[in-house]
Amino acid sequence: MIYECHMHIFMNGCNYRQAAAQYKRGVDEADIREKLAAYAQEGVTFLRDGGDHYGASVLAAQIAPEYGITYRTPVFAIHKNGHYGGIVGRGFDTMKDYRHLVQEAGEAGADFIKIMVSGILDFDREGALSEASLQAEEIREMIHIAHEEGFAVMAHTNGADAVRAVTAAGVDSIEHGNFMDEDCLQALRGSHTIWVPTLVTIANLIGSGRYEDASLKRLKERAGAVIKRGFELGATIAPGSDAGAYCVSHARGIQDEYRALWELAGELMTREEFDKRMEDAGREIERRFCRPL
Asked: Which among 192, 187, 186, 162 is positioned nearest to 175, based on CA atoms?
């Protein structure tokens, strides 16, 4: 079985503004069906969306079974106003506002809650993030509230401090996880948190002309070394490509991610062992990130 544990159905892999403009006019069912058909053709049986403004992932979840696909969605991601996350979700100012958004997502059919706790890689400043993460106390309260409402939590997380904070707070999955250190990996090793590194969001940019290739190659090497160490320590690492992001195509992106992860794990285990670890991690996400009863 092939699991795609992080994707965005409304994005197109080449132009975010174009995709957003397309869906602002209304959810494009034909576009969603075309993407689901592509996943089915590649043998992908599970998709976990990262959320959107437009209701795209809600419709996708409704029709995905027609293609033999299990689909999970947070409906929209939740970010603190003034911080990164507006491209895929809705913002809050106070924890009371945040709780209302969690409840609203649930009422709209969310299977889990996705939170945004940090910025993204700043490819123009190698080794930097676009902004600092939220405070550990805020992160802990966000995860606690979502868990209290019965939801698993998917957290967009970059930077060692943010990774330590979400892991300590019991987050269910970390998305991206760039710039982890050894302490982060040791914490992951002893936790129930699943890591979805989305390596191809860096690797697939190489040769695109959008950023300097030498810098991208160094970032890929740095990220790869941390992922390899995670495999070595026995951290639970799941396949997810962030399909829809720039240079990460739907259906093909997850194939790229499996290959990239295998290149790192191949020195540590057999292909059979690798495939089992990917399937076990995917199954655990499928089991845990489902709508509360």
From this structure: 162
Angle of helix 252-265 relative to helix 271-288, nearest 10 degrees, comes to 130
pLDDT confidence of residue 157: 98
CA dist., res. 155 & res. 188, Å (int): 14
DSSP bridge partners of 156: 116, 175
> What's at 230, amino acid-wise?
G
CA distance 266 to 258: 11
Identify the three-state secondary structure at position 289: coil
- Per residue, the 3-state secondary structure of 54-89, as one string, reads CCHHHHHHHHHHHHCCEEECCCCEEEECCCCCCCCE
Q: Which pLDDT does position 124 carry in this prediction?
A: 86
Q: Determine how β-strand 121-122 pairs with β-strand 77-80.
A: unpaired
In this prediction, residue 127 carries a pLDDT of: 81
For the chain, how many helices (H) and strands (E)?
A: 11, 11
Cα R_g (the chain), whole angstroms: 17
DSSP class of 135: P
Task: Report the alpha-carbon distance of residue 137 to residue 92 in Å, rounded.
Answer: 16
CB-based contacts of 239: which residues, under 8 Å, 6+ apart? 2, 3, 4, 5, 196, 254, 257, 258, 261, 278, 281, 282
7-57: pLDDT as tens digits: 999 999 999 999 999 999 999 999 999 999 999 999 999 999 999 999 999
Assess whether pLDDT exceeds 90 at residue 126: no
pTM tops 0.90, yes or no: yes
Helix, strand, or coil (residue 185): helix
Q: pLDDT tens digits for 210-234?
A: 999 999 999 999 999 999 999 999 9
Give the residue among 250, 232, 233 at the shortest CA–CA distance from 241: 250
Pairing between strand 77-80 and 113-116? Answer: parallel
